[in-house]
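Render this sequence as a predicted structure.
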Amino acid sequence: MASTHHTLVVLVENKAGVLARVASLFARRGYNIESLAVAPTDDPRFSRITIGLDAESSPIEQITKQLFKLIHVVKISELPPGDAVEREMALITVRADAKVRSQVIELVGVFEGKIVDVGSDQMTVTLSGTPAKLDDFEDLMRQYGIVDMQRTGRVALPKLERQARLRSVAGKSA
């Protein structure tokens, strides 16, 4: 089954109101944002907005054209799922009384998460990884009872080139 998820990375000027204008563009057209993460880049003049969309309900080309009309948008990139490194972070508070606490701790370890707070019958854990990894962990935690949960939304960068380019040296024969 082909993925219908698309990730748009929008580089914008780091100014007040820019995120609101981007979000309102989606709202005015009735497009649903599945995931949204925004933070300044290594250059404080710019912020990177990573937007996760369902491609079936949101025509990517039309969205891109509309985004480029916004004055503070500098660059837009679409990252296909296979060509991007995607990560997400979650904080999850789960029921974990004495009878099941060791099971929860073991699953947190298997998923390379960390326990960040412990109460008498609940635990808060943090986990980062691919969105699919977080989905799997969330599904397993449901059997214990999720009390509260917050996920950051996807952040993504293009995958790096894997093959070294051969340099040709002028004037040398093979």
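Summary. The first strand starts at residue 5 and ends at 13. Residues 18-29 form the longest helix (12 residues).
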